[in-house]
UniProtKB/TrEMBL annotation:
A zinc finger (C4-type) spans 17-38. Keywords: DNA-directed RNA polymerase, Metal-binding, Nucleus, Transcription, Zinc, Zinc-finger. This is DNA-directed RNA polymerase subunit. Core component of RNA polymerase I (Pol I), a DNA-dependent RNA polymerase which synthesizes ribosomal RNA precursors using the four ribonucleoside triphosphates as substrates. Can mediate Pol I proofreading of the nascent RNA transcript. Anchors into the Pol I active site to monitor transcription fidelity and cleave mis-incorporated 5'-ribonucleotides. DNA-dependent RNA polymerase catalyzes the transcription of DNA into RNA using the four ribonucleoside triphosphates as substrates. It comes from the Eukaryota. The keyword Membrane does not apply. Zn(2+) 2 binds at C84, C87, C112, C115. It comes from Suricata suricatta (Meerkat). Pfam families: Zn_ribbon_TFIIS.
């Protein structure tokens, strides 16, 4: 099913479906990449010359702060580059929960790794 980009709801690059916003699967041996959620299809040749960059940051031994097992899920999630609105520290752990109905986005909870201030964002 070739939906075409004329009715797209999202402005995105080729990593995301322009109709529903889902992450598109990686190109394979088929002639098209098809969104598994809505069926949007894009020609696999559109992915030619696309450069994918990945960055890994390795911290020095002893620089990482171990998470205690008794800490809640707010400290067990990944840490992202987000500035705490209370103390200004760069680096907040996050986790998500489905707080609203299933057809709405998840709520993202951010916790400052320095002062433990929490904020939420509805996505």
């Amino acid at each position: 099913m070739d939906s075409g980009r004329s009715r797209s709801h999202f402005q995105s690059d080729l990593d995301f479906c322009p109709d529903c916003g889902s992450i598109l699967p990686l190109p394979g041996v088929e002639d098209a990449v098809t969104c598994i959620r809505c069926g949007f299809s894009v020609d696999v040749r559109d992915f030619e010359q696309k450069v994918v960059k990945t960055t890994f940051v390795f911290h020095k031994v002893g620089m990482a702060v171990p998470v205690a097992a008794d800490d809640g899920p707010e400290f067990q999630g990944p840490v992202v580059d987000r500035r705490c609105s209370r103390c200004g520290h760069e680096g907040m752990a996050y986790h998500t929960r489905q707080m609203r109905s299933a057809d709405e986005g998840q709520t993202v909870f951010y916790t400052c790794t320095s002062c433990r201030f929490q904020e939420k964002e509805d996505s």
